[in-house]
Amino acid sequence: MIAHILTAVVLVSSGIAAGVLFTHAVGVWPALQAMTPDRYVAAHKLLGRAYDPMMPIIVSTSLVLDVILFALSENATARFLHATSAIFLAGVGVVSQTRNVPINRRVKSLDPDAIPADWEDPRGIWGKWNLLRTTFAVLALVGNAAAAVAAG
Q1: What is the pTM of this model?
Q2: Which residues neighbour 4 within 8 Å (Cβ) at sequence distance 6 or greater?
Q3: Where do transmembrane segments lie in this chain (predicted)?
Q4: Longest alpha-carbon distance in the chain
Q5: What are the C-alpha distances in Å from 71 to residues 13, 64, 74, 144, 152?
Q6: In terms of residue numbers, what domain contains 86?
Q7: Which of 76, 109, 131, 152 is 20 to 30 A from 118 in CA distance terms?
């Protein structure tokens, strides 16, 4: 019974993580790229207020649930899929914390009304790292859905 509840929770949490990152990749990010640097910095600061505290919690929760489900599952296929999903979620966290977050901090430290003349626009590289972590999150969700099916 507990495995069924945890499976439902991991499907929701990994689905939220994948959905937020996917939406950001296909909708929010293109809009941010089209903005002037000052508007981009201001918008980036506003968006970060909600994403920064929530996304690490959601991704970490999903990862922990996958590890627990790996340990609880008696089905070898489901175990493999939960382990794989946990690895992908760890990838989301590593890319986020080592690549995207440092860029976010630099952008948030800027004054939108005083962008330095020598400012190096980070949007291109940020977008590439975001696409990688989005791919990891979607693959984790697919793995969790497949594990749920495999476990019956």
Answers
A1: 0.95
A2: none
A3: 6-32, 53-72, 131-151
A4: 60
A5: 19, 11, 8, 14, 16
A6: 2-151
A7: 131
Alpha carbon separation from 33 to 8, 25, 41, 108 (Å, rounded): 36, 11, 11, 16
Q: Which two tokens stand for residue 137?
A: 């999150």
> Quick one: which of 91, 84, 120 has its CA closest to 21?
91
Q: What is the pLDDT of residue 52?
A: 81
Q: Residue 130 is encoded by which pair of tokens?
A: 């975001």
Give the chain's domain count.
Answer: 1
Alpha carbon 15 to chain centroid distance? 10
Q: Which of 28, 62, 69, 61 is nearest to 46 (CA)?
A: 28
